[in-house]
Amino acid sequence: MISEFINEWFDAHRAEVIAWRRHIHRNPETANQEVETTNYIANILADYGLEPQRFPHTGLMVDIGPDTELGRLAFRADIDALPITEVTGLEFTSEKPGTMHACGHDVHTTVALGLACALADFQRVNELELGIRIIFQPAEEVWVGGATDVISWGALEGVHSIFAIHAEPKLRVGRIGIRAGAITSATDVVELKIKGPGGHTSRPHLSADVVYALGKVITELPALLSRRVDPRTGTVLVFGQVNSGYAPNAIPETGMLTGTMRTADITIWRQMQELFAELVDQILAPVGVEHELSYNRGVPPVLNDDVATAMLASAAQSIDPQAVVQAPQSSGGEDFSWYLEKVPGSMARLGCWSGEGEQHDLHMGDLIVDERAIGVGIKLFGAVVEQFMGENAQAD
Predict the structure, then answer these.
(1) Alpha-carbon gap, residue 249 to 246, rounded angstroms
(2) What pLDDT digit, counting tens, does each position of 312-350 carry?
(3) Which of 164, 264, 276, 287 is exposed most, by the fewest CB atoms within 10 A?
(4) Contact assessment for residue 107 and residue 17, using Cβ atoms and an 8 Å cutoff
(5) 234: left (phi > 0), else alpha (psi -120 to 50), else beta?
(6) pLDDT > 90 fraction of the chain, expressed in percent and rounded
(7) d(CA 225, CA 206)
(8) Peptidase M20 dimerisation domain spans which residues (predicted)?
(9) Counting beta carbons within 10 angstroms of the beta carbon of residue 43, is it exposed (0 to 12), middle (13 to 18) or buried (19 or more)?
(10) C-beta separation of 256 from 280 below 8 A
(11) What is the DSSP string of 151-211?
């Protein structure tokens, strides 16, 4: 049994695997700068007799096992860090000021690396009947995500389905969050520039009030969207930046408004740009200002396939019957969604809270991950491989 082999492999290599994670955590690199991280991963894979394929800039993938008519089972890990200052005080804290693995990508990478090396050892003593591909993706944390580049470089060619995990510090270590359908949201960025002739606040009737126009959009647009879009889709517009003016008695000539548009519904996401422009036009028409709208499409929601998600749940339960919990639908974005636009798959939430003390959050400088989660992740992926092989053997 592959899963049994992988479980025993991790127990024997635990210290080595944890050392990998601590090295990656200590040496974080932000999006598209992951040169040393890529080299580090490639060297470990080579030490285990594997032949990684580097992507044109940073990142890499590695194939294990044969090509079959079924196609390869893929696992994706993201390798980039964030421009955040670490304040954990850990002995292996980031040695790069202002840069930190604050989203758990060091854990994702270590889990995928452990799976690859365990499968390499398995293949030396057993026949691996299924082709596996491990993808170490750069630049998940930037718009619109490195997944689109990785796909264009051929990472999904010959892939049957794909799986991933995401660290979840709100979930106790050992628990695995599963959710069919949307587990994250589409995330777009909007920018609205408004122009008018300017004027004196004592004579607003002789001008076009830019600040008033901004206020109408800020208050009316979210309300109108709530009447045009099904509220069950989790569609949320929030403005995070507004700028205009320089004096209390002067009507400014320009103003700017930016924010994020999020939805868990793929159909709404595909329609939103047109609807957004229509509503902005209607709101600003009576005010007499000129406007320029930039609607920047980000990532679609991660839509977990029903069959793949059931396989994840079954794999998790084979590790621990109590492991599976229902993952909440998140309003955050994740570029794993681009892979699921091409092939079926599923992403799980990997619990990484120790169960004691404060629960820290992702993208924060004080995030501490319980390293026991790494073993859970490796064993989960190993169980997915076994589940996948078993189901397709039955189909044959």
Answers:
(1) 9
(2) 999 999 999 999 999 999 999 999 999 999 999 999 999
(3) 287
(4) no
(5) left
(6) 95
(7) 32
(8) 190-284
(9) exposed
(10) no
(11) HHTTTTTTEEEEEEEEEEEEEETT-EEE-SEESS-EEEEEEEEEE---EETT-GGGS--HH
Closest CA relative to residue 269, chosen from 184, 380, 354:
184
pLDDT reading at 396 higher than 70: no
Gap between the Cα atoms of 329 and 189, Å rounded: 20
Q: Is 219 exposed, middle or buried (0-12, 13-18, 19+ CB in 10 A)?
A: exposed
Q: How far apart are CA 345 and CA 160, in angstroms?
A: 9
Mean pLDDT of 56-70: 96
Question: In angstroms, rounded to a whole number, what is the distance separating the alpha carbons of residues 21 and 375?
Answer: 12
Question: How far is CA 221 from each of CA 38, 164, 187, 216, 272, rounded to the nearest angstrom?
Answer: 44, 36, 17, 8, 13
Q: What is the pTM of this model?
A: 0.94
Q: What is the pLDDT of residues 144-153, one digit of tens each?
A: 889 999 999 9
Compute how many other C-beta atoms are within 10 angstroms of the C-beta atom of residue 105: 25
Q: Are 277 and 295 in contact, with CB atoms under 8 Å apart?
A: yes
- The whole-angstrom separation of Cα 212 and Cα 245 is 12
**CB 113 within 8 Å of CB 50:** no
Is the sign of the CA dihedral 83, 86, 90, 93 positive or negative?
A: positive
253-283 pLDDT, tens digit per residue, is: 999 999 999 999 999 999 999 999 999 999 9
Instruction: Write out the two tokens for 174.
Output: 């050992």
| Residue-wise DSSP of 212-275 | HHHHHHHHHHHHHHHHHS-GGG--EEEEEEEEE-SSTTEE-SEEEEEEEEEES-HHHHHHHHHH
Contact 189, 143 (CB under 8 A): yes
Question: Tens digit of pLDDT for each residue in 151-198?
Answer: 999 999 999 999 999 999 999 999 999 999 999 999 999 999 999 999
Angle at 38 between CA 35 and CA 40, to 5 degrees: 110
d(CA 173, CA 372): 7
Q: Take residue 166 and report the two structure tokens written for it.
A: 């995401």
Find the length of the chain. Answer: 396
